[in-house]
User: What shape does this take?
Amino acid sequence: MATEATRSNDWKFGLQFSVMLPEHLDQVLAIESESFPVPWSHQAFMFEVTENDLAFYIVALLDGKVAGYAGMWIVLDEAHVTNVAVHPGLRGRGIGRALMTELLYRAAVLGAARITLEVRVSNRVARNLYKSLGFVDRGIRRRYYSDNDEDAVVMWLCFRDARH
Ligand SMILES: CC(C)(COP(=O)(O)OP(=O)(O)OC[C@H]1O[C@@H](n2cnc3c(N)ncnc32)[C@H](O)[C@@H]1OP(=O)(O)O)[C@@H](O)C(=O)NCCC(=O)NCCS
Assistant: This one.
């Protein structure tokens, strides 16, 4: 699925979006390691962008550098957000919202009827972001995160009735 060439958007502060490519991975890994207690490996991202036909990843570029990224898996008409992160020095400027908005648009275009994600109970920033985009809390996965046994909130957003 991750075969499309770069797509650019005129964002109000010069942000551009691209499908994540192997050449982005060093910068993605740097953000990943500063954003998550159990970061994904280079190998894991490489598999996602080069081999996993169910995966779709984007990067947000500022002046050609990776400012953030987001990804999902799409299985039939269901999308599952796997990760979203913004460079720590660039947070709070709307980049996370722009990334998620782009990802939701792509999910809908690629045929998803609904999209889900897990988020740490303590992650107020991300939960606020998802809620403001229309995601609703639908359940709890107990001790989902292995590093500290924290619970995950399961959130869903429906684009359309799956029967149509
Ligand atoms: C979550 C994350 C991607 C948000 O990116 P960001 O660029 O900082 O977010 P934005 O500036 O676009 O803000 C989007 C919304 O998030 C929420 N938010 C952002 N900063 C916040 C803060 N300090 N406190 C509370 N809510 C906040 C708000 O709802 C905000 O919308 P608003 O500005 O209209 O009020 C970013 O904080 C990050 O990379 N965190 C570490 C990785 C992570 O936790 N990823 C999510 C895993 S589920």
